[in-house]
Amino acid sequence: xxxxxxxxxxxxxxxxxxxxxxxxxxxxxxxxxxxxxxxxxxxxxxxxxxxxxxxxxxxxxxxxxxxxxxxxxxxxxxxxxxxxxxxxxxxxxxxxxxxxxxxxxxxxxxxxxxxxxxxxxxxxxxxxxxxxxxxxxxxxxxxxxxxxxxxxxxxxxxxxxxxxxxxxxxxxxxxxxxxxxxxxxxxxxxxxxxxxxxxxxxxxxxxxxxxxxxxxxxxxxxxxxxxxxxxxxxxxxxxxxxxxxxxxxxxxxxxxxxxxxxxxxxxxxxxxxxxxxxxxxxxxxxxxxxxxxxxxxxxxxxxxxxxxxxxxxxx
Length: 315
Fold this sequence. Notes:
Elements: H1 20-60, E1 63-66, E2 69-75, H2 79-86, H3 88-119, H4 126-134, H5 141-152, H6 159-166, H7 174-177, H8 179-203, H9 208-216, H10 221-232, H11 234-248, H12 253-258, H13 270-280, H14 284-314
Antiparallel strand pairs: 1-2
Helix pairs in contact: 1-14, 2-14, 3-8, 3-11, 5-8, 8-11, 11-14, 13-14
């Protein structure tokens, strides 16, 4: 009897066809690759836009570069950093920056909570009032500073001076007698609408059932605010503090327009000190070192705030 000989199965006979899921994954990978390829020029341009000025500032911070002697580029190492850090104006600028940031945060957070509580109440013309409250946030800092300087704080023609005379009081020269407080008020006026908008949005998400239950338990308005409303606004307040702090560390236009860093160095912060070093003293090398120091300090503050506030947001 003839023996049937079966050929060994080829490895191609057991190969399965790729399922539809594999095809979909391949299409997704292809689409993602194309998307990265199309976005790459914008990302590279943005990176170059940020990296090139930073690298040039870092380079200038190690050389003696004065605008009055543009041809002299002497390598001085860390002398510019040593000069900037030992400058008596540096400590004053640090203190002024901290006072400015702290004062604006105090006004905007407290005022934002109060305005949010007020705007959350039903009243006639509520939409118009909300729009008017938020409007200052869209005013340019230079314009806002000029308005406050010439129309409100002017010692002769300003509105505050007219009110003081009407009350029989001597008018106050705000920008000369209380310069740092004046800058704080101007910047706080600009950022108060932002804080109000964030806090009002958070306040509107508060459950009415909690408030009604507290009122049924004979809780007063103060107790409801302390034990229900304020804890509910905690996350929104942390967001306001984080975002405002990052921007308040670089306040410049309001100081330049109103006090120009004075009287003396009463309103000179880190940003204005770097500007004065570069364009008033023509010391680009020292100003570049100050700019690098300011970037490092801003990143330290940002990391600290992100770590501290991140715990509150995750809670």
